Amino acid sequence: xxxxxxxxxxxxxxxxxxxxxxxxxxxxxxxxxxxxxxxxxxxxxxxxxxxxxxxxxxxxxxxxxxxxxxxxxxxxxxxxxxxxxxxxxxxxxxxxxxxxxxxxxxxxxxxxxxxxxxxxxxxxxxxxxxxxxxxxxxxxxxxxxxxxxxxxxxxxxxxxxxxxxxxxxxxxxx
Length: 174
What we know:
This protein has 5 helices and 7 strands. By secondary structure, it is an alpha+beta fold. Strands 1, 2, 3, 4, 5, 6 and 7 form a 7-stranded mixed sheet that branches. β3 and β4 form a beta hairpin.
């Protein structure tokens, strides 16, 4: 059985859906249950940086970027990602080559237990892609919904602002 969607044909077999997601820049085929959440599909595929926190959209630890915008993967069906771009924390950098945002979080001392950090880093990326020179208020608004039990968010806000400066400097700005 095939269902035509705006993003290509979605096929079903044996009670499962065959989807293709552009995951961290590569097309990845997945077979998912109709009611399976994107969080579960990603973790099953080995993307463990996408954390399971509250399972009801309150904590932000499951944040991924969908077509460049932050979404809560515990609240989105995997089939909704068919033929769309999904970026997980694994798609940003590598341990030996961290993304400037990741580096800024380390340098600012914003990483404590680390559980919330993937969601915060991805929320920061989405913000800086839209607004390269945000003020503190914009950063706080972008990080809103990403809960951290270790801090008062001061270091994460400082990290996002530092990341903005780093990215600007890398592009030749001051």
